[in-house]
Amino acid sequence: MAHQTEMTHHAPEEEHPTTTGINNRKLLMWVFLSSDCLFFGSLIATYMVYRGQSLVGPYPVDIIDVPVTTISTFVLLCSSFAMVRALAATNEDRQGAIIVWLLLTAFLGAIFIGFQVYEFNLFREEGLRIDTNLFGTTFFTLTGFHGAHVTLGIVWLLGLAWIAKKGRLGPKTALDVELAGLYWHFVDIVWIVIFTLLYLIGGFDTGPAGDPSLVPHSITGLLGLI
Asked: Distance (Å, rounded) from C-alpha 142 to C-alpha 120?
């Protein structure tokens, strides 16, 4: 009986031990994030391989606006702090604070998406589309998939806020918020890498530095190499 009583007081993340000592759900999330690392890694590698090899403009130096994207990056980083506070409020069973911090995290993420939509529209007006050149193909593919990840995270956070409103989030269900936090922090880290490589380093690229005859013209030529 004592053993059964002890088991009933264990935290939810300890109810299903594994050989790694990590909860099954948390382990599955780490596996998913690892696979997503490979996914984004391949997209980033593709961008870097064809960096500065577009045969026609506009080129990054013509349209990249580092100051504006710096603001959106700062907003996304602030959302990570809000996510940390949401988890802390969950562990402390402060119901009102849980909802506020989850909604604030989602709101900051939505602002980031708003900046991205503005940037995409601005690029389109400047003549850059996904099939314009290699820069457009790799840029829109990489940042577009990242934006989709952020959007999914926003939906997840809003769902958690709805659950919290019903009083179903607290210390015993803190793992639900922790898993969302792992995903959200991963998305933020990926964006830091993207911002550094695409904007701070590659934002001043012009035309191809090598033999233009060896460079595919756009997405059609790029797919032809695969």
From this structure: 12
Assess contact for 126 and 58: CB atoms under 8 A: yes
Q: What CATH code is carried by the domain that includes residue 37?
A: 1.20.120.80
Q: Please state the domain count of the chain.
A: 1
The predicted-structure confidence for 29-75, as pLDDT tens digits, reads as follows 999 999 999 999 999 999 999 888 888 888 999 899 999 999 999 99
Q: Is 39 left (phi over 0), alpha (psi -120 to 50) or beta?
A: alpha
Can you tell me the distance from the alpha carbon of 175 to that of 177, in angstroms, rounded to the nearest whole number?
Answer: 5
Q: Name residue 173's amino acid.
A: T
Q: How far apart are CA 205 and CA 49, in angstroms?
A: 13
- State residue 21's pLDDT score: 66
17 is a domain residue: no
Distance CA 60, CA 203 (A): 5
| The token pair that represents 201 in the structure block | 């380093």
pLDDT digits (tens, 9 = 90+) for 182-194: 999 999 999 999 9
